[in-house]
Amino acid sequence: MKYYETSYLDLFTKKELEKIGLYSYDIRADDFCNEPATIEKQVYVNKIGSIITDKPIIFNVHNFKDYESFLNENEIVYELDELIDDNKYIDYGEIDLSDDEMIKHEFNNTFNSCDNFEEISKLTPKEKKEMILERYHNVNDYALIENTLNKYKLFYIEKEKVLEDLER
Question: pTM to 2 decimals?
């Protein structure tokens, strides 16, 4: 199995990853919060990061996987794109929401054809950013995954190809 290690993922990002067939898990630190100790479905205490995989992790009877064992048994990748099946998902590039000007630009591109555009264009940059993220989250044909702080990868999901694979 291939895996990509990243900072701690929020629930929104985990759901977006599920849309494109990836699995995400949390990394728990040891009791001294110095070193990664285990991989678990969800961590509430001592969480220090996340792992994204192309296949599901099989946990032991205590619902965790030893971190070091996992690393030794699997292959690390250094780009999220290396986990994604290019036959089913089209990479639409990056959406940069790192500053007010970039948010305004993306907002205008996304919502300029709305009937109430003039009214909603008066929203604050924070509200505009939330609308952009919510829009992509609610459209099932897209997945928006935070790649780096306030920069997101946008994927179009080719449903027909995903369904073909499920039928096999």
Answer: 0.65
